[in-house]
Amino acid sequence: MKMFNEKQVWFVTGSQHLYGPQVLHSVANDSEEIVQGLNTAEGISVAVANKGTVKTPDEILAVCRAANNDPNCVGLMLWMHTFSPAKMWIAGLTQLNKPFLHLHTQFNAALPWDEIDMDFMNLNQSAHGCREFGFIGSRLNIERKVVVGHWQNPQVHQDIDDWCRAAIGVQAGQALKVARFGDNMRQVAVTEGNKVSAQIQFGYEVHGYGLGELSESVNAVADGDVNHLLDEYTTTYDMSAELLNNPEQKKLLVQEARLELGMESFLTSVGAGAFTNTFENLTGLTNLPGLATQRLMAKGFGYGGEGDWKTAAMTHIMKVMGQGKAGGTSFMEDYTYNFGATDQVLGAHMLEVCPSIAAAKPKLQIHRHTIGCNCDIPRLIFSGQQGEALNVSIIDLGERFRMIVNLVDTVTPTQSLPRLPVAHALWEPQPNLSTAAAAWIHAGGAHHTVYSQAVTLAMLTDYAEMLGIELVVIDNSTQLRQFKQELRNNSVFYRLN
Asked: Where is the L-arabinose isomerase N-terminal domain (predicted)?
């Protein structure tokens, strides 16, 4: 079973009747062997379904329409085994509403030098058959991914999987509902945005729910379920026995467990895979959820603080895209800097950082929270695992959405942080803090981000291209002057496009 269960990528082979039944028989056999090879490849996480060889415009149109109507089909992988005249593809491609990957490969790897004849040449025409197909994609101005290499090559498998995960992310966004408890933090600009435009662009719905509705769900949680969850806390996290032995502290844990169960129940009941809240709107709740939010994120729910629904949605989408990969994904915020020999960023939030990014077993502790509510709140405390990571921000520029990605290198703090009562990650932005921060600010990136060590830049590039949104990348090759010019060029392109 592949990582994404019933989801599939449809493999469609292009040919024509010109070469006769014997060639088409070989085309079908070769295609089936390739599909079997891709399905047994460890590096590909989505099942590949062989949808046969298309030889006429009607067959192409039929398979494209069928893909459109199959909810388990996340996209198509198209390969031209022989020459497939591209005018045959116009009707199908213009009606296809799912992404496609153009696999530019051939069945054999090495040439059989002593055996090549015209029969071999007529059968193995991918080198120029795919060029014919490539033209029509460009003529129709269709965004697609082109993967080049032999189908048994692990790098080809990686490229295919990146695209598959991006397609899964697009589909996850189209099925997503974001629940907002309370409004956006007052006077904050970047967390606002046009929800209708977002639904048109990304597919997800954003709905507001009253805190009274949520508090009813929280208050309805059974005591037995709370006790069961407390037992889970003790076995999952590093926590002092005093937390359960001290009546006042146990009361706080009970409140947090009730919040977790109540929120999960409510989100499930309305079909929401992501949520937001804000410390300014807590009427009916005991406190701003801390541990509860962290654990819900660990279960796959997206989250955005202070009403940030765009980041909440992207957190869920990236969690889906990174499913099964090493590393985690979390809501995050660039909180404060460490200027030194190598400038660094300490990322954190008031309470809500997902334990999927933890370097070690999280500690469950209770500390005072003083923003929006002055009370003690349970939370998980940990440092993020060292290694490559990235930060992602989606912003609404009015006429379009922009995705900003900064590649970072997460490091282990050289000193302990004994008085910092929140989970955190310390990273060094690429190419350096001065360039990265300036580029981020010029691009309008938000202070909230999605931080991930599971999702790659390649996945996000494919995701942005599938949706037709602007993508700007800050990495080791970034130079500020060229980056600013890229922003200007993009502005012109998207206004004209």
From this structure: 8-172
Distance from C-alpha of 378 to C-alpha of 250, rounded to nearest angstrom: 10
Three-state SS for 470? strand
DSSP 254-304: HHHHHHHHHHHHHHHHHT-SEEEEBTTB-TTSSS--SHHHHHHHHTT-EEE
CB 421 within 8 A of CB 379: yes
Q: Which two tokens stand for residue 283?
A: 């009427």
Radius of gyration of the chain (CA): 25
pLDDT at 8 exceeding the cut of 70: yes
**Contact yes or no for 214/288 (Cβ under 8 A):** no
Question: In this predicted structure, what is the pLDDT of residue 126?
Answer: 93
Burial of 28 (0-12, 13-18, 19+ CB in 10 A): middle
Question: Are 101 and 34 within 8 A, CB to CB?
Answer: no
Q: Which residue spans of the chain are classified as CATH 3.40.50.10940?
A: 8-174
Strands (E), 1-84: 8-14, 47-54, 73-80
On whether 448 is known to bind a ligand per the annotation, the reply is: yes
What topology is assigned to 8-174 in CATH?
Rossmann fold (3.40.50)
What are 303-343's pLDDT values in tens digits?
Answer: 999 999 999 999 999 999 999 999 999 999 999 999 999 99
Say if residue 256 carries a ligand binding annotation: no
Q: Is 367 assigned a ligand-binding role in the annotation?
A: no
